[in-house]
Amino acid sequence: MASHWEDFYATHLPPPDFEDNRSILKEFCERHKKIGQRIVLITSGGTTVPLEHNTVRFVDNFSAGTRGAASAEYFLEHGYTVIFMHRLKSLEPFTRHFNGQKLMDMLELDERGPNTSITVKPDSVDVLAPVLARYKHAQECGRILYINFTTISDYFWLLRAACECLATFESSALLYLAAAVSDFYVPSNEMPTHKIQSGSGVPNIQLQLVPKLLAPLVSLWVPQAFVVSFKLETDEHILIPKARSALNNYKHKLVIGNILQTRSSRVVFVTPDNNYEVVLTREQQLNGMEIEDGIVSNVIISHTEFMKNSKY
Ligand code: 9Z3
């Protein structure tokens, strides 16, 4: 049985920097509320499930945070204010383009003469400049807030705090829940304090079901917002039925389904009325296009329609 979401909060302490993050979220939302822009909360990346309080080991998942980080850039382009709530060390908007050694390979170092200089290689300027321009613009307008989490418990606390701040935006708020949140965890009161010892034999670790936060989120925390959840599967046959059952259970407006191996080229939108696919062809991929461009454009069309209907 999944524990109830309220029990989870009652038995798991907030992360140490929680109050700071809550104030930052509140201040950011109040400032943007005055400007009257649309706002999106994007969750991105995986969550860890610690096996010990003094955590040496944890259960993790595959998510790199590409979906969330890329989508954040497209939402900014469409004029949305963005709260980017992501797993620490997962991909972030803008810097994701220069991950690993890419940035180093774009630079030239000159140590001759009295002053050391670093320049961008001529053939890299066209690659770096547009991303840098978009990054600077977003920073100068203060239109993106970065908040990070690591564990499932951090995620729970921050998601609820963000929702409390977003509720006042009513239908202008969009929740885009792309993080790969663990379905299983070890409750705090069942976790050993110290590192599990191999000398004690094979560990018997009992995982419990994580309560589904979509239920209180949709019905209690942000009842007027446009909520988009993602559904990940590895078996094509169950993707649409599972996505539709999530929509029926939680009564939000849109579930975006994807299959692990094809997630960067195909997704299916499951709405109360129909299903439709957003696909990126091989040719489009080779031309540097990203599926998040199409996903975000379609989500915004639905959000706009939702806002119009909410006025009456
Ligand atoms: C997704 O399905 C995302 O699209 C991915 C993106 C995590 C697949 P990457 O970060 O991958 O770009 O590498 N997110 C939601 C996955 C999820 O756990 N959904 C829950 C479920 O399927 C419901 S909220 O049960």
The overall number of domains is 1
* Overall CATH architecture: 3-Layer(aba) Sandwich
Q: Hetero groups bound?
A: ligand 9Z3
At CATH level 3, the topology is Rossmann fold
CATH superfamily: CoaB-like
Q: How many E strands?
A: 14
Brief characterization of the structure:
This protein has ten helices and 14 strands.
Can you walk me through this structure?
The chain is of the alpha/beta class and 312 residues long. The protein has one domain: CoaB-like (Rossmann fold, 3-Layer(aba) Sandwich), CATH 3.40.50. Helix content is 40%, strand content 21%. The chain is built from ten helices and 14 strands. Strand 5 and strand 6 form a beta hairpin. Helix 2 (18-35) packs parallel to helix 6 and helix 3 crosses helix 10. The radius of gyration is 21 Å and the shape is globular. The mean pLDDT is 96. Ligand 9Z3 binds next to helix 3 and strand 11.
